[in-house]
Write a sequence for this structure.
């Protein structure tokens, strides 16, 4: 990140703003959590169903059958996948915290990561209802 460097080593030697620190920290946190999400998905414990019939929910988890349901028509599907996997990774967090965390993570996703999540959905999908695999596209 060249812009970061300029800020950090600027000739005036100014201190970084608290906002900058927060942003940097959140970026690192996003990286770590993103890797945990991929590890969870790679672990093979959960399959995915892509469907437009989710009763108005962007997604939800069926823990009895280890299925993550995603509705790509209601919300960017990558963000919903992040949201649902965070529920699995962090069962102690309430809905509001999960929403904050997943939208933060989603903001930090570059195109490559969005594509990676779409590829995971396509690889792990065991069913499609109302949507086809080819309809799934990353939102950038
Ligand atoms: Zn939720």
């Amino acid at each position: 990140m060249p812009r970061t460097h300029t800020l950090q080593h600027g000739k005036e030697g100014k201190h970084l703003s608290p906002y900058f620190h927060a942003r940097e920290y959140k970026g690192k946190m996003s990286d770590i959590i993103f890797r945990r999400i991929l590890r969870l998905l790679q672990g093979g414990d959960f399959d995915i169903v892509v469907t437009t019939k989710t009763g108005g929910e962007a997604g939800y988890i069926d823990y009895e059958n280890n299925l993550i349901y995603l509705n790509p028509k209601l919300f960017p599907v990558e963000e919903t996948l992040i949201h649902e996997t965070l529920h699995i990774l962090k069962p102690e967090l309430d809905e509001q915290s999960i929403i904050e965390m997943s939208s933060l993570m989603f903001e930090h996703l570059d195109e490559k990561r969005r594509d990676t999540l779409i590829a995971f959905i396509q690889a792990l999908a065991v069913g499609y209802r109302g949507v086809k695999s080819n309809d799934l596209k990353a939102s950038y």
Remarks:
- The longest helix spans residues 18-42.
- The CA atoms of residues 33 and 41 lie 12 Å apart.
